[in-house]
Specification:
three-stranded antiparallel β-sheet; Rossmann fold; 7 domains; Arc Repressor Mutant, subunit A; mainly alpha; globular
């Protein structure tokens, strides 16, 4: 299409590219209705930069379920294939996104890169997730990403990409119709003589400036119609008629090629289209169709053809009679090479129920599921359901499809079908799936009712596997409601229904172990896990090892807990078990927070959050957030508040989620000394009636936070009464960390009530318990509280000893708010705190520290980028910062630097 106008839009794109040239990657969204000139704008813009590396791909409606189809176009493109060799087969979207980042890094060695995705709304979801992952990781790259899509199709975008676009990060250009002056220029370019301003205004009013419609009218209608105002201009809907007229004016073989190509989709190989059309001279047909503006050669070397616009393809396709479409699809099914395409054509050729085709689709879906392609499995099962003859079979296949959607995390996609499956006849499988959907969406009452119904309707003697699945989902439901005893019973039922070594048995043991631990029966919980093979690398056994690591964390075995959790995270990431990996990283970050490895806690906590986000699942409301704890303790209120919002915005009604979100909010409030808010956000926890997990020691340490706030608000007697039951349980369980925390608050209570001997005993007991562990932050808080007490007694020398020790720990941890409190106490003790200096500009950030450690281990920049899911350009940027901060000039010097040697 001839390009006219769009001067403002071109200027904006040039500005975006100029910023990208400076190492500030930019994202631009170009949107508008069909035919408005989006692709023409991009083509004109790219034409101005002949020396730029361009990666370009486009979505295709017929290939929307082809996993990583768009990414494969990028990797196979001329720029992509010449930059680096094709890697291993495409797997989960994190690894694929890392490949895209790697490719962008290679291309930038030659110069800046422009990444273009046309028809974004038709891109396959897996590619969109991988591209979203890559776009988020661009930090110091010379990359401009142009996303092109129809404005009315934004609902097709995944939630994460939609949020990114609407967050203000992307520069959005909403293309509208051309102005009259632009249309006049277009007419001149097309050779329409004597095209007056009045004629241009008539064309503008008639087409609203849509360049595709305008060009079609200018090409088709005689020039006389524009010169004579009394003549009526055809309506824009004539576009379809114009296309069909052009088709009708072509030769028989050209018409056959156009029809065949429309059945194959927007893009196809010339050879396949020619065989489907059954023509001998396809090149002559392509030439004729191309001259008429109906078809074009897309890649000359590969002889691939494409329609110039989706409207052309759609017009020709829908212009075929139903019988002719069915005939061509049936023939195409025998010509295509892959089974997925063959099945697609067979479905399109089948107007009525076809049990054999439904069975073939179901078989293919199950093979896809075995390979982890759960979205494809679900899509093919939906098609199988629609082609099944019997109602019961249709419902069974659709339920199986929704089950795979839930398994893959596509909760929103499954929710679309909720109304339909709710209309099915009641049954165990239906209620099990609806119950799981309600559970994942945070509706405990509905989930409980449906899962109970599912169990009632299931006969374990007939379908033991379904019964075991229902039992396990009931166990998960009970655990979310903090009903540990009930969860243990459901897990035992599942185990009785499964064979030893089966996936259900492994999962059942893990759930049973967790439930027993919530009940305080930790030896029994470990015994259950000991019967599970933890050395295996399967996902379910990794999950059992995850529980094992968590129980070690509860037991205050921090080094062993960190080893277990790190191992689970590493193997789960390699296998693409993203949910398991995210949970392991979340708990690993908590163990590192307790251990004082705060930089590592930030790295692993943010990586867990990244995976939750990239998986399009809500932040796991049942896990702690070490990120909030660390940022709050360091006084980084902006980050702490951001992570608090991310961890607490999901409106879940499960008691476990209520408990977790309250604790996260309380951690931030306590760090800010907002004691009233601490009590307020923890009030829902006190109102929960099921106390099994809430009061059990070691899982969720909230009791000391609450009691501390009471003391700070002079509600000392209330704090003392609150502590008694928890102190007794901590002693009974032998939880040293919790005994230390509670004893610290007990010391404050006794001091406030004028019992110095009891206060002294409590503080010393607290120190004795914590010194057995390596928990520097907790120990420093105890020393601060004890030093405050000693100062008030006038024992300044002893107070100074405790306060100086606390000060050293707070400095090493970077715990700013607590350091300020400590220095106020030192000043009140008559000591002059060390002179405060500004932020240490030579200290590496957590991200820089992670890069430095990986570089020190011998990894290349590309390998480091793969480990951290960043682009190679970002790694290079971090390395330059590292060299500058550490005053070094080579990679070999990094490993010898004290910051790396001490792990600080």
């Amino acid at each position: 299409m001839e390009f006219v106008g769009r001067h403002t839009e071109l200027g904006l794109l040039r500005s975006q590219f100029d910023e990208a040239l400076g190492g500030h990657p930019r994202l631009a969204l170009i949107e508008g209705p069909p035919g408005i000139g989006k692709t023409a704008l991009v083509d004109r813009f790219l034409g101005e930069y002949g020396d730029v590396q361009v990666l370009r791909a486009s979505g295709e409606e017929a290939e929307a379920f082809l996993e990583y189809g768009v990414v494969d176009q990028l990797l196979s493109s001329q720029a992509g294939s010449s930059a680096m060799p094709r890697q291993a087969p495409l797997e989960d979207h994190l690894k694929v996104g890392a490949q895209v980042l790697d490719l962008l890094g290679h291309l930038q060695e030659r110069g800046p890169v422009i990444l273009v995705i046309d028809d974004l709304h038709w891109a396959d979801q897996t590619s969109l997730k991988a591209l979203l992952f890559g776009l988020r990781r661009l930090q110091a790259d010379r990359v401009l990403a142009l996303l092109v899509m129809r404005s009315e199709e934004t609902h097709r975008l995944p939630e994460g990409l939609s949020r990114l676009i609407h967050s203000g990060v992307a520069a959005r250009q909403q293309l509208r119709g051309l102005e009259s002056a632009d249309l006049r220029e277009l007419a001149a370019l097309m050779g329409v003589g004597a095209f007056s301003a009045g004629a241009a205004e008539r064309l503008h009013q008639h087409t609203e400036g849509n360049p595709l419609y305008a060009r079609a009218l200018l090409a088709e209608l005689p020039a006389e119609i524009w010169r004579r105002p009394e003549l009526t201009v055809p309506a824009p809907h004539s576009f379809s008629l114009l296309v069909l007229r052009r088709r009708a004016q072509r030769s028989q073989e050209t018409r056959q090629l156009l029809d065949a190509a429309s059945v194959l989709g927007m893009h196809s190989s010339l050879d396949l289209a020619a065989r489907l059309a059954d023509i001998a001279d396809p090149l002559a047909a392509v030439d004729e169709a191309s001259a008429a503006g109906l078809l074009q050669i897309e890649q000359v070397g590969k002889r691939e053809i494409a329609f110039p616009h989706p409207l052309v393809e759609a017009t020709i396709y829908h212009g075929l009679s139903m019988s002719e479409r069915a005939r061509l699809h049936a023939r195409a099914a025998t010509l295509v090479d892959d089974q997925a395409s063959s099945l697609r054509h067979r479905v399109a050729a089948t107007p009525t129920a076809d049990p054999q085709l439904a069975a073939d689709l179901a078989d293919f879906a199950r093979r896809e599921a075995d390979q982890g392609a759960w979205a494809s499995a679900a899509a093919h099962l939906v098609k199988a359901s629609r082609l099944s003859a019997g109602r019961s079979e249709r419902e069974r296949l659709l339920l199986e499809a929704v089950n795979w959607m839930l398994f893959s995390g596509s909760v929103s996609q499954a929710a679309v079908l909720r109304e339909e499956i709710s209309s099915f006849a009641g049954g165990a499988l239906r209620d099990c799936i609806l119950g799981q959907l309600a559970l994942l969406e945070g509706r405990p009452g509905e989930a409980e009712r449906l899962l109970a119904n599912a169990w009632t309707q299931c006969d374990p003697a007939i379908d033991a596997q379904l019964a075991a699945t229902i039992a396990l989902r009931n166990a998960s439901q009970a655990m979310g409601r903090l009903r540990a005893a009930e969860g243990a019973e459901w897990a035992r039922r599942a185990l009785r229904l499964t064979r030893p070594g089966s996936p259900e048995a492994s999962r059942g043991k893990a759930v049973l172990s967790m439930a027993l631990a919530y009940l305080g029966r930790l030896p029994e919980a470990f015994a259950v896990l000991d019967s599970t093979e933890l050395a295996s690398r399967s996902e379910l056994e990794d999950w059992a090892l995850l529980v094992h690591g968590l129980l070690r964390l509860v037991e205050d075995e921090l080094p062993n807990a960190r080893a277990d959790l790190a191992r689970v995270a590493a193997t789960a990431l390699r296998q693409g078990s993203l949910q398991t990996a995210a949970d392991a990283l979340d708990w690993l970050a908590t163990a590192e927070y307790y251990s004082g490895a705060w930089d590592d806690a930030i790295l692993h906590g943010e990586r867990a959050l990244l995976i939750y986000t990239e998986s399009e699942r809500p932040y796991h409301a049942f896990n702690p957030s070490a990120l909030v704890a660390v940022w709050a303790a360091r006084g980084d209120w902006i980050r702490a508040e951001q992570h608090t919002r991310e961890a607490t915005t999901q409106p879940l009604d499960y008691e476990m989620a209520i408990l977790n979100t309250a604790i996260i909010q309380a951690q931030l409030a306590a760090a800010r000394s907002d004691h009233q808010r601490v009590l307020r956000v923890l009030q829902p926890v006190l109102g929960l009636t099921r106390r099994e997990r809430i009061d059990e020691q070691g899982f969720w340490p909230w009791q000391d936070i609450y009691a501390d706030a009471l003391v700070n608000l002079d509600r000392v007697a209330e704090a003392g009464a609150f502590l008694r039951a928890h102190e007794s349980l901590a002693a009974e369980r032998g939880r040293c960390s919790m005994m230390a925390r509670l004893a610290r608050v007990r010391g404050r209570v006794e001091a406030a009530e004028g019992r110095p001997e009891q206060a002294e005993s409590a503080f010393l007991s607290s120190l004795q318990h914590i010194e057995r562990l390596r928990m520097p932050f907790e120990q420093a808080r105890i020393q601060l509280a004890y030093g405050n007490y000693l100062r008030r007694l006038g024992r300044r020398r002893e107070a100074a000893g405790q306060l100086v020790a606390a000060q050293i720990s707070f400095v090493e941890l970077g715990a700013g708010p607590y350091l300020e409190r400590c220095e106020r106490e030192l000043a009140a003790s008559g000591l002059t705190p060390r002179k405060r200096r500004g932020a240490d500009r030579t200290r590496l950030t957590p991200q820089e520290l992670s890069v430095a450690r990986l570089v020190a281990s011998g990894l290349t920049n590309r390998e480091v980028a793969g480990e951290l899911f960043l682009s190679t350009k970002t790694i290079e940027f971090h390395l330059s910062q590292i060299f500058d901060k550490l005053d070094i000039t080579s990679r070999r010097q990094i490993a010898k630097h004290p910051q790396l040697a001490t792990g600080t």
